[in-house]
């Protein structure tokens, strides 16, 4: 069965809006694990707009499943990762002015730098995943670096799904999942997945894990965090 990773960034966003201590991302991670998720995802941004360094340290100590740190190629962030040593580091693109991650990491264009950061993390015993567009050239570039995991950006699919025009985007994700699996690469996916569009992606043969944050946190406002996670897990289990 496809696994579920829960991104808890938005818990920290709510906390930072008040500038105090609640809600606590560490407690959120614990509740998500109790509800059955397979991993906890947190993005330490360069501007520290939500998750803070202290959160990363505490999450590393408290997460019992699998701790996936999303991060840019910035030297300062790499230094934090090397100190904390998450189970996995997912390299993502980052622009200061963006509201959320807008696309996949351009591994082809930044091959030398991505390779350097990837091998630095791998040498420290941290598994590395590259968050990329569902594109053959990007997958081949990831393969040349030697990483064992990629995460396909599903943003275009999610936007098209909302307009009932997702056939082409879904076909591309499916084809690139199969292509990567044939090359021996583990395939995860995420971005924009919600309670309506996740089922189809979870059914793709070879898909390993779906990383979802905003939809689960939004649903949790009305039904509670554990229930929101369980509802998403139920969708995945049906696939």
Task: Note the topology.
Layout: E1 3-7, H1 9-18, H2 25-35, E2 39-43, H3 53-62, E3 67-71, H4 75-84, E4 88-91, H5 111-123, E5 127-132, H6 136-145, E6 149-153, H7 155-162, H8 167-182, E7 186-190, H9 198-202, E8 207-212, H10 214-223, H11 225-238
Parallel strand pairs: 1-2, 1-8, 2-3, 3-4, 4-5, 5-6, 6-7, 7-8
What brief labels describe this structure?
239 residues, alpha/beta, eight-stranded parallel beta barrel, 11 helices, 8 strands
Description:
An eight-stranded parallel β-barrel has the order 1-2-3-4-5-6-7-8, surrounded by eight helices. Helix 6 links the parallel strand 5 and strand 6. The protein starts with a strand and ends with a helix. The model has no long low-confidence stretch (mean pLDDT 96). It has 239 residues and is of the alpha/beta class. Helix 2 packs across helix 11, helix 7 runs antiparallel to helix 8 and helix 10 packs across helix 11.
């Amino acid at each position: 069965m496809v696994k579920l990773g829960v991104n808890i960034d938005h818990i920290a966003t709510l906390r930072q809006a008040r500038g105090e201590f609640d809600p606590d991302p560490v407690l959120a991670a614990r509740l998500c694990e109790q509800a059955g998720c397979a991993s906890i995802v947190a993005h330490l941004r360069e501007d520290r707009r939500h998750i803070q360094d202290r959160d990363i340290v505490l999450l590393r100590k408290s997460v019992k499943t699998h701790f996936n740190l999303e991060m840019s190629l910035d030297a300062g962030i790499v230094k934090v990762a090397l100190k904390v040593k998450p189970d996995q580091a997912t390299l993502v693109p980052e622009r200061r002015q963006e509201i959320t991650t807008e696309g996949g990491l351009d591994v082809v264009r930044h091959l030398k730098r991505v390779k350097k950061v990837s091998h630095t993390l791998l040498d420290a015993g941290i598994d590395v995943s590259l968050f990329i567009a569902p594109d053959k050239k990007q997958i081949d570039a990831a393969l040349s670096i030697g990483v064992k995991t990629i995460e396909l950006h599903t943003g275009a699919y999610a936007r098209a799904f909302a307009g009932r025009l997702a056939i082409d985007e879904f076909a591309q994700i499916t084809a690139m999942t199969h292509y990567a699996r044939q090359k021996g690469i583990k395939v995860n996916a995420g971005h924009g997945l919600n309670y309506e569009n996740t089922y189809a992606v979870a059914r793709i043969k070879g898909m390993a894990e779906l990383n979802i944050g905003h939809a689960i946190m939004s649903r949790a406002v009305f039904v509670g965090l554990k229930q929101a996670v369980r509802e998403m897990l139920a969708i995945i289990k049906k696939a």
